[in-house]
Amino acid sequence: MMSTTVVEVENLSFRYDKRLKENILSNISMTVDQGEWLAVIGPNGSGKSTLAQLLVGLIEADSGKIRIKNTVMDDTSKWKVRRHIGIVFQNPENQFIGTTVQDDVAFSLENLNMPYDEMKFRVDQALDLVGMSSLRHHDPSQLSGGQKQRVAIAGILALKPSILVLDEALVMLDPKSRRELLTVLQNLKRKENISILSITHDMNEAALADRIILLESGKVKNCGTSEQLFVAEPDLEPPFPELLRRELLKRNRNIPNEYMTEEEMVNWLCKSRLTV
Amino acid sequence: MAMQISFDSVTADYQIGPIRSPRVLDSIDLLLPAGSFTAVIGHTGSGKSSLLKAMNGLIIPYDGKVTIGQTTIKAGKNKKALRAIRQKVGMVFQFPESQLFAETVEKDICFGPLNFGVSLVEAKSIARVVLKQVGLEPSILSKSPLSLSGGQKRRVAIAGILAMQPDILVLDEPGAGLDPIGKREILQMITAWHKEKKLTTVIVTHDMDDVALYADDVVVMEHGQVVKHDKVRSFFTDVNQLNEWHVDVPQARSLQLQIEQETGIKLPGVCLTLPELADALIEVGIV
Amino acid sequence: MNKLILGRYFPGDSWIHRLDPRAKLVAAIYFIFVLFLANNWQTYVFLWLFTTAVILLSNISIRTYLRGVRPLIWLILFTVFLQVLFTAGGEIYVDLGPITISKFGLINGFYIFCRFIMIIFISTVVTLTTKPIDLTDGMNALLRPLRKLKVPVDELSLMLSISLRFIPNLLDETQKVMDAQRARGTEFGEGSLVKQMKTLVPIFLPLFVSSLNRAEDMANVMEVRGYQSDVKRSTFRQLSWQQKDTISLLVMAMLTVALLVLRSNGFGH
Asked: How does the protein's chain sit in the membrane according to the entry (chain C) (predicted)?
């Protein structure tokens, strides 16, 4: 099956202050396929969030191109492009525009001047996808941070986009809401074939991605699956099972020198026990 | 000098604007010994933050009393007691950087000590000391807090609390919103001060790895009540009970439980950290 | 802060609660005008009966309404006082040169007092029984004709609805910053006025900064979700005019007729 590319970034460069020589991003190129989950990681100041803002057209690149669903992003096309790409930001509090859950989800549809019946249908559908239908009449003060972020995602889904950008959208949530939201995202990817680009410094979140891009001072330092990346980049703090594998390796235990997920680790331990 | 914190059947309401939350604290009896390091856990709205506020006289009990060291707070007028308590108890709120207001970092850090009658000269010298404690350079003193990065702001805000030279340090999710490295550095600093200055330390957290790595004791809150107060290690032993409270377990413990289930081998002890789990696996000869 | 009744919403499911906000707004504004038809005790008694009926229908205790009057009572009494002093006619009880207290003055003062109280009661009925967002929608609908005059009605009502949505957040944040500064030894409401003013700086500056940040975040969110101020938008929140709304306006018409019948023709005697 041929996969279609939904996001194409070509030699993208950007700097905030034109007087400075230093670029925030320099010559970034990358693609995201339909239905792919891509994580972008990197230390603070590596340009991750700038990339997100460029992708949704909140700021304009100095050079290079962004193509979303084959449309090049520019000042006039951005309004159309934004029907295909949506973004969830970090602070759940500042993204809730409507006075109730369903009003908030409808906001982007109202902006398209969509007729009421169509809006109602889409709002219902989107709320269902994130599991918030029962709370549709609630106001934001009655919701947890995780629920607010789910509403923000529903607001984007209502537009039936191809790609969802998460700009550290899970940072302010507690571990439990974080896990719940990740499950929602995994389901969306599976059922709706939606692409996800998550900008994060949570390695457990990054490890769920199909591919990870590591940014460092505005450049792509490495790119690959979690198996490849966490082995190639020993400075990254990997998910816990990989930490355990490294710890055991340090103690001269006979453990395979490749990345392991939690399941793989437990399975390997089971087998190794049988061979003892 | 370390001080103990004691709650004696404390019941309290809380009021924000027109909204009144009744019984945010419901007949709480609690004794945190001098020099202890306690993690407070529980759902959002379970009363964790209120418990912390009561330790600083920001919530006054309408029944029962809170005693910090020798000072007692109960219903009624407490002016003197409140002043004494707020000087002894350093309280770091969630996202404390949002309370920075002064033109310079130095002025912001001096705000607390000056309020408690410390001279300007002394306050300034304290500012230098605490800034070093939070791992920042003195050159930052003359900068505007607004010009700093998120992590630096957090440290300046915490320095502003340390500057009051408290005997008790109370922190509401000090690592929230930071990247993993920034978070670890903050928590390690807190642990270091706890030991050096013999503080009584209380942190609220949602992250069970924080509980496992840094705290000695754990308090579980539910519906404004303390439902459990235990040593960290014994607390994470009974997994069924934890499930009932919807409490997670630390990553090491979680992997331990999975391994035990799949291999059918019970590892010695409760593993709370990575080295402990590795040791246990080697000990039973799984690897 | 929590003593202010005017402008607050009391959730409920009374007949008045369920009326369309447009009907409530029109009826309330109409009531204020129709009040001026009253000019004798019969008309005032009748209006009081009407007002009482509306209050009973709202299913909110009369005490709440009285609390709504409290912050304005001195202003009302002052106005009434002036009215009493400067209206002449009828039997004179006190005579101090230009200032007299006469029979007409007292009667007029009492009528004015009634008018004030009824206006406050009826507007309080509207705000107590209507969600702020529904009020905004209602006003937006009623002001729609002004769009032809290039008044940005939709923008204004969106602004209003977003502000309403953030009021609880702002209260929350104020409380948080106050607590934080109290923990650092600030004592509010103590010492001289200058000293008290000084304690406000550590409150307002952080609130100002966080409001600015919030505004920036909101602007970004609105933009990426496709909001353009000069583009036509549809509305998801629908108002539905029902039979009871028409009935309520008919009641207002009947009230007018009744007042016209009951009032004395010509002013005075």
From this structure: Multi-pass membrane protein
Domains and CATH numbers, chain A: 5-234 (3.40.50.300), 239-276 (no CATH)
Cβ atoms of residues A212 and B285 within 8 Å: no
Chain B residues with beta carbon closer than 8 angstroms to that of A203: 180
Dihedral sign, Cα of residue B63, residue C173, residue B227, residue B174 = negative
Two tokens, residue C260: 């016209």
Number of domains in chain C: 2
A130's CB contacts (< 8 A; 6+ apart) are A150, A151, A153, A154, A157, A184
Residue ranges, CATH 3.40.50.300, chain B = 5-249
Q: Are both C37 and C108 inside the same structural domain? A: yes
Q: Which residue of B has its CA nearest to A169?
A: B177
Quote the strand ranges of chain C, DSSP E.
Answer: 92-96, 99-102
Which residues constitute the domain of residue C162? 144-224
**CB-based contact C180 B112, cutoff 8 Å:** no
Domain range B5-249, CATH architecture: 3-Layer(aba) Sandwich (3.40)
DSSP C173-241: HHHHHHHHHHHTT--TT-S-HHHHHHHHHHHHHHHHHHHHHHHHHHHHHHHHTT--TTS----SS----
Q: Does B287 contact chain A (CB < 8 Å)?
A: yes
Phi, psi of A265, deg, nearest 5 = -65, -45
- A252 to chain B, any CB pair closer than 8 A? The answer is no
DSSP state of B97: G
Is the Cβ pair A244, B180 closer than 8 Å? no
Interface touch A172/B176, C-beta < 8 Å:
yes
**What is the spatial distance between Cα A155 and Cα A108, in angstroms, rounded to a whole number?**
7
> Chain C 145-204, CB below 8 Å of chain B: which residues?
168, 171-173, 175-177, 179-187, 201-202
CB atoms within 10 A of CB A203: 21
Residues of C in contact with A124 (CB under 8 A): none
